[in-house]
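New to this. Comment on this protein:
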Amino acid sequence: MIYKQLGSTGKRVSAVGFGSMRFPKEDYQKDLDKCADLVVKACEMGVNYVDTAPDYCDGKSELIVGRAYARLKEKPYLSTKCGLWNATDASGARRAIEASLKKLQTDKITVYNMWCIKNMGEYRRMTQKGGIYDGILKAKEEGLIEHICCTSHADGETIADIARDGKVDAITLGYNALNFAYRRQGVEACFQKGLGVVVMNPLGGGVIPQYADKFGFIKTSPEQTVATAALKFLIGHPEISVTLPGIANERELAECVAAAEDAAPVTPERLEEMTKSLRHELNTLCTGCAYCDECPNGLHIPKLMEAYNSYLLSGDTQSITNRLSWHWGLSPKDAAGCTRCGACEPLCTQKLPIIQRLAEIVKC
């Protein structure tokens, strides 16, 4: 297992962490210990960074991780979160922290995140006087938390602004072989500020391995699977501390750990080569840069466009409905709010026909 520094925290973390959001529903509904067994096995194989959240797996994820944590002699670093839907002020954040400590069966959380920041407005709301950040900071002063961090699906520029603000020790962000060209600014900004970089969604929400024939350009050898190549691509970034796949079974665990046994450094030349391949091979896919996320009617355009990717890759319109429902909790009807005002299309870095695609999604 490769280990890296988590920014300036002094922690050495496994290059691959354990994302605790994809336990099979049939398992966590019936047998939490079966899920905990997978976490224990991961830690015994060298994984020492385990990420969870209060809402993952219908609220069961922290309980699962807590059961595993109690069984382990060598304790992993624990990461959990609080979003604006969990709390709106410092006292609410404190209650969320205490609930997580109890479920995780620990007296200290290594990494506590302001969860799912989508724009600077949400970041400012969290960090305003008396907000979530103040509650987390107080808990840190009392020794309940070691490091204040955040997770974000924002664009690279917003990530860079958060990094420069100096309030967090690490940022977890979506970065993978599909969207790296449009998120790299944020990764570099975090690294330059000495922050840890934790990468979520490393396989593009499952899109990359599901459509392996479309992503052959990321492989560096014929015998590699596309999933392994995608993980090694991220592990090879010197800026990235932890790559965080969601792991559902022992087969996936073994593949993820094997990917972290060695990984060649990703050079600027390799990035440029992959950028050209991305634009050539997949130039009709939305890369998830989220610059279009300025709809005056509040449409979740990046999520809708990401679901449309599934159709482009599979040719099956049902895949749009499945993706929206399973991944985002949305439906094709959510696209019906489009008034064709045209505000989104000039913002698209790829000049995609967003309005046309939204109309097609409504018909699904």
